[in-house]
Amino acid sequence: MTEAVLYDAAGPRGRRRILIGSLAGGLLVVLVVGVAVARLAANGVFEAERWRVLTQGDLQRLLGRGLAATLRAALVAMVLAMAVGGLLAVARLSRGRWLAMPAGAWVELFRGLPLLLLILFLFLGLPAVGVTVSTFWALVAGLTLYNSAVIGEIFRAGILSLPKGQTEAAYSIGLRRGQSLRLILIPQAVRRMLPALISQAVTLLKDTSLGFVIAYAELLRTGRNAVEFLGGRYSIPVYVAIAVLYIAVNASLSFLARWLDGRTRRRLGRTVQPSVADEAA
Amino acid sequence: MDAVLDNLDTFRQGFITTLALTVVSTVLALVLGTLLAAMRVSPVPTLRAAGATYVEVVRNTPLTLVFFFAVFVLPQLDIRLSFFVFAVIAVTVYHAAFFCEAVRSGINAVGVGQAEAARSIGLTFTQSMRLVVLPQAFRTVVPPLINVVIALTKNTSIAAAFGVVELTAVATRLANANSDAVIAIFLGSAVCYLALTLPSGWLAGRLERRVAVAR
Fold first, then answer.
1. pLDDT higher at B38 or B62
2. Which of A71, A254, B134, B212 is the most interior residue, by most CB within 10 Å?
3. A10 interfaces chain B, CB cutoff of 8 Å
4. Which CATH number characterizes residue B203's domain?
5. Number of alpha carbons in the 13 Å side-chain half-sphere of residue B62
6. Residue B25 in 3-state DSSP?
7. Band (A1; pLDDT cuts 50, 70, 90)
8. What's the mean pLDDT when you consider all of chain A?
9. CB-based contact A220 B62, cutoff 8 Å
10. Fold of A57-280
């Protein structure tokens, strides 16, 4: 439903009211922002000298390396999570109980646990049983466990969203179950769930920031190190720069997901919708 | 196993802190999120834009970075509060955007015909919202809202890295002190989290199925 249905095109009196509302609302926004800016200015946040720190080549290189480390962890984890998630989806859809039940338990378990707890468990727990693990792999393994559960559900929803006639047609021309999945269902499902997968990739990318906690040198950790070296007065410029980097990468991915979603929906009628809760986690 | 039983009291305190953080942040974020959703569907352009900007910025920012701004930047502005309050601020600011989106998608899920019918019998914007759209939206919106609350519960674990001694921090501390029982200690924390998240997820699933029949 578009919100426009909720009210008529405004007449002269309505337009006047909306104008007044706009001005009042605008004033409120300006007031809130203004108080914040005044507070920041009083603490000298807008001194040019503080922001000039961002032009330093050293800092730029450091943050660049941090961003590269963030993207590397996200990419490896996404590929692994998609592989495991694919297996989970096929297992959950299989008619064999001894396959479907453990896969279901896997999904419930890893979706119900905080990602940070998983990462810390891998980071502190594996050395306790004699397996050494780098911060990179502790982070990637934690991300993979958690996201495989979410992505497995996206895959499953994608396959279940297909009309039943597709499976029936596949069976009727003599394909076996595995063949119908591989040749008929999965190729169609992929197009429907691609937008949801991309928005899950955004969530995963955000979650690489948990590497900060186990001191994996990703974007946040390098930023924090830089601030500790430069001094607390530079915290706002550095963190704002980091926020801009994250938002630039994630917003373009989100935009791509939305564009693909609109396009796929126009062509196929339906797509897998990512849940708001999965985006929050 | 002994390491867990000996420290049951520590676990209990961690559990209570996690629960307190979850409840306080949920209430505040729900209020802020509903307000943002109302802004986003209102006919006033500046409010719509402000709401949309807030959601767009927050949902593309990692929660850890929001914690950075709360814990490291606010003190720079002479705002000094306890770690717990900083954590509440960060968790609230972050999840309000997602509560907003859940509420908004609930409103959007109500059929266009419902709003058109309400408008055509002469109800005003406020009346059609209050009497027709919101009562229906409420039904669809409850399961996704519960799911966001579950996500919030899990996300409170990040407060462990910023000075709040909740379940995850308890696990880390005890694990560092008892290196022979790391796995049992983490299992203890995991069970506490699952005790919060699994029943809520089950409830959300049940409600979702019940509401699904209606439409």
1. B62
2. A254
3. yes
4. 1.10.3720.10
5. 27
6. helix
7. very low
8. 89
9. yes
10. MetI-like fold (1.10.3720)
Number of domains chain B contains: 1
Confidence of residue B212 (pLDDT cuts 50, 70, 90): low
Residues of B in contact with A276 (CB under 8 A): 98, 101-102, 105, 144, 147-148
Question: What residue has token string 């590929």?
Answer: A79
Domain assignment of residue B150, given as a range: 2-214
Inter-chain Cβ pairs, chain A and chain B, closer than 8 A: 202
**Residue carrying structure tokens 């050293």:** A58
Domain ranges of chain A: 57-280
CA angle at residue B48 from B44 to B51, to 5 degrees? 140
Reported as a single tens digit per residue, the pLDDT across B176-208 is 888 888 888 999 999 999 999 989 888 888 888
Asked which of A260-269, B64-73, B87-96 is least confident by mean pLDDT, the reply is A260-269
Tokens in use for B155? 């996300």
Contact B54, B92 (CB under 8 A): no
Contact between B112 and A279 using a beta-carbon 8 Å cutoff: no
CB contact under 8 A, A111 and B201: yes
Query: Is residue A71 less than 8 Å (CB to CB) from chain B?
Result: no
